[in-house]
């Protein structure tokens, strides 16, 4: 039965799930297990693994179309976060009284687990996996889900966890209304996906702040006090939860996380033993990763985990694939896969993490990027830019006076080949696209995998 505290939607009748990917199939299985009549509909063709699962579970589905008669008679709609509000079907659904929610919102009704939820424009996956590893190392019965790993709904359906660490995108948060994060982490807010928010930055900020909706006094709100958009957003969005800011400005916090003069990360939460660790001991280096460790450390301390466990985890953690991932060192040239960097701010963090000279591979589907914030780093660190994807004109315009070489490529293999001729011993070839991937590639993972294959073929 659903958790009464979280029970706001029909718990019988017909559920229609829009989108037959990881989250949609997981939601379908949970809905079936809870006694709903379930129908899955996807405008695209389903991956074979998901078709096989739905068939095995005897769940009805369609692919390559949305049959309105099968959808508009639903008691509840669970929507893929990838479907925009501008889609004709969504326009129709909004005229009805049928609730439209996310997989996360649906699954949360059926678990009493502690929910540690992480959002932000950058660093979500790294912080999510770091937090998960700290929790796991401490012996907690923990699952990881959301934008990463196996779907939350499937885990709720088939496993029993005490804690979930959830990576949440703004698109997921938009379809969450009664969901409650017991630990909410807001890492940063920089322009991203503005095409989904009518190019209104405040609307995007408001979407990110949905992570604190429905919090209660016994919960925790962890956020970056150095982020301008978060600071402005706090004036409009407040939580009754305990506030735990983190900062790298020269400020000692009695409640939160900060860096002292000796470069120690200090974490203080009332009625908890303080945590201290020199940032040079962190396995993930760079200013952005100090922020990520601060957030994960605050979450761990909120869970009353031991300092020794936290330190061991933060010293040994290995970064996720496609995020500043070391691929190889060939002829003295280091190749780095940062395919997950789909916005300008992520590229800024990547460039900040490496010394000159960098051969930067970037480009793809431009989401209205403002490249101004990269100019100083490009001038000081980047010796060449190699463009991939279709939307390269704005990259040429932005950086033609800031670096000596900007060239287009015909494929990822071509881009890596060009980079290998430009780079010299001691240089870094960095794939950090700043753009979406779906012009040349299936997704950012496919883009990163093709980069790694091309590097290993040199």
Automatic annotation (TrEMBL):
EC code: 6.3.2.9
Subcellular locations according to the entry: Cytoplasm
GO molecular function annotations of the record: ATP binding; UDP-N-acetylmuramoylalanine-D-glutamate ligase activity
GO cellular component: cytoplasm
UniProt xrefs under Gene3D superfamilies: Mur ligase, C-terminal domain, Mur-like, catalytic domain, NAD(P)-binding Rossmann-like Domain
Catalytic activity from the UniProt record: UDP-N-acetyl-alpha-D-muramoyl-L-alanine + D-glutamate + ATP = UDP-N-acetyl-alpha-D-muramoyl-L-alanyl-D-glutamate + ADP + phosphate + H(+)
Metabolic or biological pathway, per its Swiss-Prot or TrEMBL entry: Cell wall biogenesis; peptidoglycan biosynthesis
Keyword Cell division listed: yes
Superkingdom, taxonomy of origin: Bacteria
The Mur ligase central domain, residue ranges: 118-299
Sites where the protein binds ATP: 120-126
BP-aspect Gene Ontology terms: cell division; cell wall organization; peptidoglycan biosynthetic process; regulation of cell shape
Location, primary (coarse class): cytoplasm
Residue span, Mur ligase C-terminal domain: 322-435
InterPro entries named in the record: Mur-like_cat_sf (IPR036565), Mur_ligase_C (IPR004101), Mur_ligase_C_dom_sf (IPR036615), Mur_ligase_cen (IPR013221), MurD (IPR005762)
Keyword field contains Glycoprotein: no
Keywords (A to Z) from UniProt: ATP-binding, Cell cycle, Cell division, Cell shape, Cell wall biogenesis/degradation, Cytoplasm, Ligase, Nucleotide-binding, Peptidoglycan synthesis
Summary of the function given for this chain in its UniProt record: Cell wall formation. Catalyzes the addition of glutamate to the nucleotide precursor UDP-N-acetylmuramoyl-L-alanine (UMA).
Homology family: Belongs to the MurCDEF family.
Listed name of the protein: UDP-N-acetylmuramoylalanine--D-glutamate ligase
Organism in which the protein naturally occurs: Sphingobacterium corticibacter
């Amino acid at each position: 039965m659903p958790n009464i505290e979280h029970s706001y939607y029909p718990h019988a009748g017909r559920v229609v799930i829009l989108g037959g990917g990881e989250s949609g199939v997981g939601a379908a299985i949970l809905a079936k297990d809870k006694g709903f009549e379930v129908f899955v509909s996807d405008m695209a063709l389903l991956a074979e693994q998901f078709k096989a699962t739905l068939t095995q579970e005897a769940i009805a589905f369609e692919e390559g179309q949305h049959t309105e008669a099968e959808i508009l008679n639903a008691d509840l709609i669970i929507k893929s976060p990838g479907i925009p509000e501008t889609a004709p079907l969504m326009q129709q659904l909004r005229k009805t009284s049928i609730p439209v929610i996310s997989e996360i919102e649906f699954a949360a009704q059926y678990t009493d687990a502690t929910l540690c939820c992480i959002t932000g424009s950058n660093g979500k996956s790294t912080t999510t996996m770091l937090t998960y590893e700290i929790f796991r190392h401490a012996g907690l019965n923990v699952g990881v889900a959301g934008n990463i790993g196996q779907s939350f709904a499937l885990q709720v359906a088939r496993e029993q966890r005490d804690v979930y660490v959830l990576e949440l995108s703004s698109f997921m948060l938009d379809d969450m209304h009664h969901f409650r994060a017991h630990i909410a982490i807001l890492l940063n807010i920089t322009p991203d996906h503005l095409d989904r928010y009518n190019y209104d930055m405040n609307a995007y900020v408001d979407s990110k702040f949905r992570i604190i909706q429905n919090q209660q006094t016994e919960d925790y709100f962890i956020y970056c006090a150095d982020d301008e958009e978060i600071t402005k957003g706090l004036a409009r969005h407040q939580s009754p939860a305990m506030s735990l800011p983190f900062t790298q400005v020269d400020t000692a916090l009695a409640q939160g996380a900060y860096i002292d003069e000796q470069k120690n990360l200090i974490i203080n939460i009332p009625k908890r033993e303080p945590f201290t660790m020199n940032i040079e001991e962190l396995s993930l280096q760079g200013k952005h990763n100090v922020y990520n460790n601060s957030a994960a450390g605050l979450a761990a301390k909120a869970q009353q985990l031991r300092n020794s466990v936290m330190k061991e985890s933060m010293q040994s953690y290995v970064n996720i694939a496609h995020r500043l991932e070391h691929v190889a060192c060939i002829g003295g040239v280091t190749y780095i896969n940062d395919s997950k960097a789909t916005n300008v701010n992520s590229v800024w963090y990547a460039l900040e993490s490496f010394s000159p000279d960098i051969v930067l591979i970037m480009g793809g589907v431009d989401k209205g990027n403002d490249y101004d914030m990269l100019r100083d780093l490009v001038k000081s660190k980047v010796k060449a830019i190699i463009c991939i994807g279709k939307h390269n004109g704005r990259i040429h315009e932005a950086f033609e006076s800031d670096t000596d070489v900007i060239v287009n490529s015909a494929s990822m293999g071509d881009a890596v080949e060009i980079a290998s001729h430009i780079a010299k011993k001691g240089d870094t070839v960095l794939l950090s696209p700043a753009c979406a991937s779906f012009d040349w590639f299936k997704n950012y993972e496919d883009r990163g995998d093709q980069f790694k294959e091309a590097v290993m073929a040199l």
